[in-house]
Amino acid sequence: MARLSRKRTLGVLISGRGSNLKALLDACAEPDFPARIAVVLSNRAGAPGLEHAARVGVPTQVIDHRTYPDRDGFDAALDAALCGADVELVCLAGFMRLLTPGFCATWAGRMINIHPSLLPAFKGLNAQAQALAAGVRIAGCTVHYVRAETDGGPIVLQAAAPVLPADDEAALSARILALEHRLYPQAVRLIAEGRVKIDGGRCIIEGLPPPLGLA
Ligand code: GRF
Predict the structure, then answer these.
(1) Pocket of ligand 1, beta carbon within 6 A
(2) With CB atoms 3.0 to 4.6 Å apart as the test, which of 47, 57, 60, 88 could cross-link to 42 if both were Cys?
(3) How far is the CA of 2 from the centre of ligand 1 (A)?
């Protein structure tokens, strides 16, 4: 597969804290990283993550979902902002709005998400609490392509974290989050280097790196 010399352009969508955005910004600051963040979009004006982007001069835009009559209108505004910034790959990073099937279809194969569980286990909200309630011994995180089904698209990479006997939701979430910050840039690098191909419901990766976490 051909390597791309030009940096791929990312659009990162956030709603809150933005620690995964920060991890991507830090990765993009490395000279050899094959992508750059062209724009950060937030549906919440007060999202703390916006500060991470502003601090390093990455353009941000607030697109407040409450100012649109319906999901289609909101998603059209997202699409316009992403296209306006020539975004090639959309990275959802704690973006707390459900996207319409139309938007997911438009960006199919060009939009990824990070989720704090080993999918397909524990989709949806509070995945770490779901893992604790289920009594699993191994938890983790997943970077996957986005399809209309929530947390349902082809898996790019996963990383595993142990669940320890004394864990509460905060402790487990922190252990998983530390892995997320390593996994998301690794997945973006693979995609930006053209090493990830979607094959139906799965991804095939050229030169799959050894897994982060337990292995
Ligand atoms: C992360 O746990 C991510 O997996 C989930 O939402 C959280 C976002 O955290 N989708 P942050 O805003 O990146 O700090």
Answers:
(1) 14, 16-20, 49, 93-94, 114-116, 141, 177, 180
(2) 47
(3) 32
- Residue in 42, 98, 177, 183 to alter for ligand 1 test, most ligand atoms within 8 A of Cβ: 177
Distant-in-sequence, close-in-space partners of 101: CB < 8 Å, separation ≥ 6: 148
As for how many domains the chain has, the answer is 2
Strand partners, 40: 12, 60
Q: How far is the C-alpha of 33 from the C-alpha of 193, rounded, in Å?
A: 9
Last residue of a domain, one of 107, 124, 140: 107
Residue nearest to atom 10 of ligand 1 (CA): 94
Tell me whether residue 2 is in a domain: no
What is the domain extent for residue 136?
A: 114-215
Residue with tokens 């252990």: 175
Co-location of 129 and 76 in the same domain = no
CATH of the domain at 170: 3.40.50.170
The protein residue whose alpha carbon is closest to atom 1 in ligand 1 is 94
Both 131 and 201 in one domain: the answer is: yes
Write out the chain's pLDDT in tens, 215 residues. 455 569 999 999 999 999 999 999 999 999 999 999 999 999 999 999 999 999 999 999 999 999 999 999 999 999 999 999 999 999 999 999 999 999 999 999 999 999 999 999 999 999 999 999 999 999 999 999 999 999 999 999 999 999 999 999 999 999 999 999 999 999 999 999 999 999 999 999 999 999 998 75
Distance from C-alpha of 182 to C-alpha of 24, rounded to nearest angstrom: 9
